[in-house]
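Progress against Task 2.4 (sequence-to-structure conversion) is shown through the following example record, which the project officer requested during the mid-term review.
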Amino acid sequence: MSSILYVIAIMGCADDSSQCRSARIEPATYTSIQSCQAAMPDALVRNTDLSYPTIAAACQQRSARLASNEPPQPSRGG
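Structure tokens generated for the chain above:
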């Protein structure tokens, strides 16, 4: 069973905070939703360079394997 980690997704949105699109994922991972949410204000400050009227952030779950920097293993067809 793999561990669950959280990452902060930075999204660019229209003026009314609708039509948000994923712009980038912060490189840090968090072991709880609470620690991820606590880090969101600083993450937003680091990402003010995006050219969207509104910038938003959201914590998203990732498995430890997906959140790591290791490239995915090729699947074997069969």
